[in-house]
Amino acid sequence: MARRSGVLEMAVLGLLNEAPMHGYEIRKRLNALFGWSRALSYGSLYPCLKAMLQKGWISEDTTAAGSRRRAKIVYRLTPEGEARFAEHLAEGGPSAWDDDRFGVHFAFFARTDAAVRLRILEGRLRRLEERLERVRAQLERTQERRDAYALELQRYGMESVEREMSWLSRLIASERHRSSSSTSNTTSTQRRGPGTPTHDNGVAT
Amino acid sequence: MARRSGVLEMAVLGLLNEAPMHGYEIRKRLNALFGWSRALSYGSLYPCLKAMLQKGWISEDTTAAGSRRRAKIVYRLTPEGEARFAEHLAEGGPSAWDDDRFGVHFAFFARTDAAVRLRILEGRLRRLEERLERVRAQLERTQERRDAYALELQRYGMESVEREMSWLSRLIASERHRSSSSTSNTTSTQRRGPGTPTHDNGVAT
DNA sequence: GTTAGCATGTAAGGAGTTACATGATTTT
DNA sequence: AAAATCATGTAACTCCTTACATGCTAAC
């Protein structure tokens, strides 16, 4: 009863919601967008697309050019796929600020309701605050037992969390600023991405 | 024929090389040391310990206190386990600067030869340089097609890579400084962790 | 006396990787 | 004509997670 992830499926839904594409291009775009340390493999992508076809979220459009040519398949969203993606965009609960899923929500924020956006950013920030607190307490208790390198590894880990937190704080501030300056914005899912998320005013931790 | 990872096994070897421990404590220490976003589960740890037992790397020492009590198992390294860990410490090739494995090498740098340490840090830095270059090129080509949030996600990803690079640069500088100031150091696997890796002189990118 | 933390495990399954296998098209 | 890049897929496998199951021990 896991109901884990489906991150890849949501990412694909998000890309195809912009434009129909074939597998090869989906992979390139996904790698560029998320910058994973290891590029997504075809061994993950194609089985995923197959599963999505079976669920009826996407349809394939085979370019049977001559007749003997190798298939070139363009995938596009079905109405069910669009509905599933809309559901994803509306999800502003704890699962959205999970480590695994936060990225796939953020990536499509331009098509996300402003209120949901803010909820997710704040939730993510709270999650990291909790983590930092736990790690900091732990570190203080066991500090003298660890060698310099182990300590440095833990320190860098903490610093990374702190940096993500200050990044989120900046984003939250600019979200708040924007929503207060423009009279009502809440329901406009279609408003195009705002003029750069003004990361000039640094809310350094 | 994958020969992937075994990160967890190496981490366990590293901990048990310091002192015998039981599973529950291994888990706590590992979580503290690596600060994974999700804590390591028992469902990973115990089967891993079982496999290591079968390979003969560790032995179990059941504290059969009274006779009816639940087993409390203390694991310790066998000579074969020690040999396997020594092999891990000596590994200074590309696999050591891999995303998956770098951490488990760094964590035990205090017991690693200084020359290997430097090789790994430099290899890791080169790896990240390549990645950054690829991402930066990609970003420039496709920038105008992406919305502000997608762009921000990519920017933050790049910045994170740059930060790890400058961290590595600082560590490399302090390694070099140390090895030049102390007359010969190369073979001393036993020299205890140096007095903090002096991260004051910031070689900011 | 009950909650929190210590302690050990198994079964089922998810999500992805590597390695293999094939072929078309574009660039050099 | 060779090399790079575009393009699609499968089989076997690895690593890890979730959910379940059990019981002890210290503190409040």
Word description of this protein:
2 copies of one chain form a homodimer. The model of chain A is unreliable at 185-205 (pLDDT under 50). Chain A is mainly α and 205 residues long. In chain A, 59% of the residues lie in helices and 6% in strands. The longest helix of chain A has 34 residues, at 148-181. Chain A has a 3-stranded antiparallel β-sheet. Chain A is globular. In chain A, helix 1 packs across helix 4 (79-90) and helix 6 runs antiparallel to helix 7 (148-181). The A-B interface holds A 32-35, 37-38, 99, 103, 106-110, 131, 135, 138-139, 142, 146-154, 156-158, 160, 163, 167, 171, 192-197, 199 and B 32-35, 37-38, 99, 103, 106-110, 131, 135, 138-139, 142, 146-154, 156-158, 160, 163, 167, 171, 192-197, 199. Chain B binds a DNA duplex (28 and 28 nucleotides) through residues 1-8, 22-25, 38, 40-44, 46-48, 50, 69-73.
State the oligomer: homodimer
The rounded Rg of chain A comes to 21 Å
N- and C-termini, Cα separation of chain A: 39 Å
Percent of residues in helices of chain A comes to: 55-70%
Topology record:
Two copies of one chain form a homodimer.
Chain A: H1 7-18, E1 21-22, H2 23-34, H3 42-54, E2 58-62, E3 73-77, H4 79-90, H5 99-106, H6 114-142, H7 148-181
Antiparallel strand pairs in A: 1-3, 2-3
The structure holds a DNA duplex (28 and 28 nucleotides).
